[in-house]
Design brief:
Length: about 210
C-alpha cells in the first residue's frame, strides 16, 4: 500500500513526514527519491564440504532512496534472520555460518525494500560438493619411464619406444571410499617421427560411470 506523506523543504533539506507529521526521513536536493535497483545479485555457489572457510556469503547490494533494507528467501520461504548464530546480514549480503548440507542446500533470493517498493533478485542455487581426495593411475604404465601427474591426471612417457604402443586406461580412486572409476581405453599409436620424442603425454579423459571396488 502507498504511504501518504507530507513534504516540507527548509534550507535545501526536504523533510518527509507521515500523515501524523512524524518524520520518516529527509534528503537534500542532490538526492532523488526512487525505488530500489540492484547493483549486485547473488549467484550460484558450490561449497566444498570440509572447506577451511566456515562461512558462505551470498552477495546482494541495491541502491535506492530512502536506503533499502534487505530480506532473504530460501526455497520461497522467508529466512529468519534472528537466528544470529547461523545467519547474519553483511550490508545486504547473506552470510551463512557453519553451513549444513540438509538445512542450507536450496535456492536463495534477496529482497530489497524501501517506501517506494520491493524488488526480488534472481534465484541463486547453493549446492554442496564433496572434497575429493583422489589418486590417479594408468593401467599399463608400470615402466619407470612412465609417470602420472596427480595434479592433471596426465600420463607422461619418457623416451618413447615401439614397446609403448597399446591401450592405456585412466583409473581415478577416491582415497576415502576406496571406490574407483575408469575412463575408456586410450590408444597409443606411434609414427616414425614420434620415436625420437623425449617426452610424450596422454591426457586423461573424463571417466565413465563404471565403478570398481
Amino acid at each position: 500500500p502507498q504511504i501518504p506523506w507530507n513534504e516540507i523543504t527548509l534550507e535545501a533539506l526536504t523533510y518527509v513526514l507521515n500523515a501524523n507529521f512524524k518524520l520518516l526521513f529527509y534528503f537534500t536536493e542532490e538526492d532523488t527519491l526512487h525505488s530500489p535497483i540492484f547493483i549486485q545479485e547473488p549467484y550460484d555457489i558450490s561449497y566444498s564440504i570440509g572447506s577451511e572457510d566456515p562461512e558462505i556469503l551470498l552477495n546482494c547490494t541495491a541502491k535506492g532512496y530512502p536506503l533499502p533494507y534487505y530480506r532473504w528467501k530460501q526455497n520461497g520461504r522467508d529466512i529468519d534472520l534472528t537466528m544470529s548464530y547461523h545467519y547474519r546480514l553483511v550490508g545486504g549480503s547473506l552470510a551463512i555460518n557453519n553451513p549444513h548440507t540438509k538445512r542450507d542446500t536450496g535456492t536463495y533470493q534477496c529482497l530489497a525494500t524501501n517506501s517506494f517498493g520491493t524488488i526480488l533478485s534472481r534465484k541463486a542455487k547453493l549446492q554442496f560438493a564433496c572434497k575429493l581426495l583422489r589418486l590417479v593411475h594408468w593401467k599399463g604404465c608400470e615402466d619407470s619411464r612412465r609417470f602420472v601427474s596427480q595434479e592433471t591426471g596426465n600420463l607422461y612417457i619418457a623416451k618413447v619406444e615401439l614397446s609403448d604402443v597399446g591401450n592405456y586406461t585412466c583409473v581415478v580412486t577416491n582415497a576415502k571410499s576406496e571406490q574407483s572409476v575408469r575412463g575408456p581405453p586410450t590408444p597409443l599409436i606411434l609414427r616414425s617421427d614420434v620415436l625420437s620424442t623425449q617426452l610424450l603425454s596422454l591426457f586423461s579423459s573424463s571417466p565413465t560411470s563404471h565403478t570398481e571396488h
